[in-house]
Specification:
By secondary structure, the chain is mostly helical. It has 8 helices and 5 strands.
């Protein structure tokens, strides 16, 4: 027997409060009670009609349209099933597009398969290393070079803990049977940290520098030359 889910428990509590005693017809009362029981579970079901030619009514399934973007969303009870929303924190806006696609896909499957999500993020970290000018063949070597170039050494240690670098590293894209949700969530955060340190921060510094008056930039360049 399946374990009761939260909607089932809530439904049971609500049904106890439901009173149909004021309805005299036993058949109607029984039919309404059966409908309420099915409705309260939150699961989709057809409300069958006996009238010939009348379509069955689908319950607990809803379609909505966003007021902002006009896109359509599909709901089962109070859960949006399309478009699927990610479970992880959003990707850093400066994440390269192809890597962000891997990140977003991993986020949508995090609840369904933490191991699959972790495999996608490991692949994303490998691709990120390549985007940052590294060969992209050995994450261990690539991260070492990035650390020498300014990446926080603690990120390398953290990646080693979640089996991304080091002797026991899992090859990017491969499933690690030991991966759990906590490991996957750590990988999401670490990928974002690498993007923040190696892409976002230099980008911000360049933007601030470019906004300086020309005389100030020349003074800085002259000082750097000395």
């Amino acid at each position: 027997m399946e374990k009761d889910t939260l909607p089932d428990i809530i439904a049971a509590e609500k049904l106890e409060e439901l009173s149909l005693d004021h309805i005299e017809e036993a058949e109607v009362r029984g039919s309404l009670k059966k409908w309420a029981e099915r409705k309260a579970t939150g699961r989709p079901f057809f409300e069958e009609h006996s009238t010939y030619g009348e379509r069955d009514h689908l319950n607990n399934v809803w379609i909505s349209r966003c007021f902002n973007c006009s896109e359509v969303a599909l709901w089962i009870c109070d859960q949006m099933i399309y478009p699927r929303s990610g479970e992880a924190s959003p990707a850093n806006p400066d994440t390269p597009d192809d890597i962000r696609r891997d990140y977003d896909e991993a986020s949508t499957i995090l609840d369904l398969s933490a191991r699959g999500a972790a495999a996608l993020i490991r692949l994303g970290i490998q691709k990120l290393c390549k985007h940052l000018g590294q060969p992209g063949k050995s994450i261990n070597d690539d991260i070492m070079v990035l650390v020498a170039g300014g990446l926080d050494p603690r990120i390398q240690k953290a990646l080693d803990v979640v089996r991304v670098v080091g002797n026991n590293a899992v090859h990017p894209g491969q499933i690690d049977l030991k991966d759990d949700r906590a490991t996957a969530e750590s990988l999401f955060r670490l990928l974002n940290l690498i993007v923040e340190k190696m892409i976002s921060e230099p980008k911000y510094v360049d933007e601030v520098y470019a906004a300086l008056p020309e005389e100030a930039r020349k003074a800085i360049e002259k000082g750097d030359g000395k």
